[in-house]
Amino acid sequence: MFRTMLALLLACVGLCAQPAKEAEFARAHQKLALLPGAKAVKGWKFQVGHFAVALEEGVAQPMGAGGQAVGFHFKGKGTAVYTSAAPLEASALVLNLTKGSKLTAKPGPAGLAVTLDLTELTLVTSGLALPELQGEAAGSLDEDFRWFRDPFEQRSELPLGSLVALQRGNAAGKPVAWMDFKANFETWRYIFDEAWDMRERLLLLKADTVQQHKYVNAITISDQPLGWLLSEPIADPFLLEHLELDMQAEKGDDIRYSATETLRIQQGGLKTLAFNLYDVIDPLAFQKGPRQLKLASVTDAAGKALEFFHQDDRLVVFFPQELAEGSVQKLTFKIEGDFLLHPEGNSYWELGIGPWYPAPAASMSNRFTAHGILRVAKPWRPITPGRTIRSVEEGAYNLNEFTLENPVQFLALFGGNYIPYEETRNGLKIRVHVYAQEARNAQKRLANSAFGVIDYYKAILGEFPFKELNIIQMVDRDYGQAPPSMVMLPDEAFNIKFAVETSTDKFGDPSAITRNDPSALKVNRLNHRIAHEIAHQYWGDLVQMPSPEEQWITESFSEFCSALSMRIMKGQGTGAFDSLVNGWRSSAQDHTRDTSIPMANRINFHLDGAGTQAARTSLLYDKGAYLLYTLYKEVGEESFVRMMKSLTASRAWQCTSSHEVATLLKLIKNKDFVPFFKDNFWGTAMPK
User: Fold this and answer.
1) Cis peptide upstream of residue 358 (ω within 30 degrees of 0)
2) Burial of 76 by CB count in 10 Å (0-12 exposed, 13-18 middle, 19+ buried)?
3) If residue 317 lies in a helix (H) or strand (E), which one and from where to where?
4) pLDDT of res. 214
5) Alpha helix locations (H) across 29-111?
6) Can you give the pLDDT at residue 506?
7) What gap in Å lies between CA 385 and CA 543, rounded to an integer?
8) Residues 348/415, Cβ–Cβ less than 8 Å
9) Mind listing the pLDDT tens digit for each residue in 415-458?
10) Helix (H, G, I), strand (E, B) or coil at 20
11) Which residues pair with 260 in a beta bridge?
12) Is the model's pLDDT at 654 over the cut of 60?
């Protein structure tokens, strides 16, 4: 809570007179301006959350948004001490601070402390009492402020206006604060949010420019929860339960569509809802300048227009009255723009797992069913997830109507010059889509390989979650991905010669090449990748992760299951499996002492993208899979498979966690696995 040693306080900003339109006030926070009344200040101390500030001497001037006082700007000399009281993030804090900054963290009585030498600071609050500026009149900071604000007003991971709008609309008694500051010749941001995310964050900001586009690379130094635990995520304020799409994609870059969302309110008293929604698509990969997603309107179930604020990929929708807990709201979003990116000049486009539709901004509240119609201008074809209701021609368009009848966390759509091959076995339809060329032999081999993998997974994981699976060639990347009922693979999977047998227990034969041939290693790697991506239909789509800290549920389990599947590939035996286990062990040791598996998504080595990705892979894929291997060896294959089948059955279309994995293992082995997970999953020990 905010404390100050000054005797006089101004009225709480969150209780000041409300402007005519909340969206206008939110937008005004994106262009802050100083107000008259600069003062010379000395010995000024205050604290927000775990961030203690001591301004020794300098000049402070009131700051406004839309003419209303919201904070102040300071220039001079001061210190700040930020303390992380969340032990689970300690290793990640030290790692990112070491890689991105000149500063270090030192143990203190309340946790790890970072001391910063301040030279400039901007403080914006809502719902907090602002200290009254006292002291002699001083010269204006207007010119200094303009230079100071420039890097902060580039694209950001969270617009200030949305934070203030959420506090004012939902939680007048719960404060938020935002500080941008210069310290130790570096640029920083501090966010305190008791109103929506219930988090306190310290970010190191690195301004950069790519293709004339300015943006801010935010390195998370600390992200600690307020009133909850990283190992026990809090309930989301509202849920997306159903998504209805009506879409029309033109021959070029343009698309327009409506997205009608059924939302369930889980927290009473809300008047504003936050969503993630692109406004600029892929800002670091412009080919023809910025690609804009334009949100034209938001209407309620009665067709009444609702006010909204949309900036920096965050959308806030304002309601005229409080929403009752348990109520269902239906909103329709009209969207259009030129954001159908065509990688490397190819004809196809992808709307991937990012927020091209409004996705609730709370951590993992996207568990929804879906129905949609996608029209793609001829001659290109649409590729859609789930069960296909119809696939027809409609005038100048090819049309797919689809449905996802079980709740998923995201979905993806494609359109382009794709040539499909389709095969059905035992009620499962597999389509293999190759780009811009006939490749029937490769398509048949990939389909056969996929059927073989799925037959094996049925034995160890249960029935396949979907009745249709689309395998799609991606010509612009060297990695795979697996949205619901889709497997996206790079070029090499479609070009290499897989001679796959038709039996149900053998697949992925390395053809006529020998095990010592480098091509055999390539085939094995591709077989493993295909099996990994198909495993995501279970781990990620069927059984879902509750938070970014638990992403191992999707990646580590998929990695381990794909390695198990390698044992039944023709000519492999246990050799490929053992090789993968050895690789996991070796790679995990590279970074296991740096930080823990749950912190893998926090890793950010500024200007070292390859190093960042390598460290994340080492933990989330390799150490996570090796952790599962050690458990597999301890409890035995039969018991381990029983544990996985229990998860896929009991947590189907829901989230699960490391805690539930430990609980199931205890039932099977009659042993407490909590210490094992504390040391090796939440901690930095190496599984043995």
Assistant:
1) no
2) buried
3) strand 314-323
4) 62
5) 90-100
6) 41
7) 17
8) yes
9) 999 999 999 999 999 999 999 888 888 899 999 999 999 999 99
10) coil
11) 244, 332
12) yes
Cα 579 from Cα 573, distance rounded (Å)? 11
Q: Which residues are paired to 318 by β-bridges? A: 272
Average pLDDT over residues 558-576: 82
Q: Which amino acid is at 334?
A: K
Q: Which residues does 330 contact at the CB level (< 8 Å), separation at least 6?
A: 260, 261, 262, 263, 300, 301
Q: What is the mean pLDDT of residues 516-545?
A: 81
Cα–Cα distance measured from residue 168 to residue 193, given in angstroms and rounded to the nearest whole number? 12
Decide if pLDDT at 397 tops 80.
Answer: yes
Apex 370 CA angle, 367 and 375, nearest 5: 140
Spatial separation of the C-alpha atoms in residues 336 and 330, rounded to whole Å: 20
DSSP string across 629-670: HHHHHHH-HHHHHHHHHHHHHHTTTEE--HHHHHHHHHHHHS
Angle at 610 between CA 354 and CA 206, to 5 degrees: 70
Q: Which amino acid is at 156?
A: S
Using CA atoms, how far apart are residues 587 and 686, in angstroms rounded to an integer?
Answer: 11
The pLDDT score that the predictor gives to residue 289 is: 67
- Give me the torsion for CA of 449, 453, 458, 459, rounded to 10°: 120
User: 465 - beta bridge partners?
Assistant: none
Kind of pairing between the strands at 387-394 and 397-408: antiparallel
Average pLDDT over residues 558-579: 83
Q: What is the pLDDT of residue 312?
A: 87
pTM metric for this prediction: 0.91
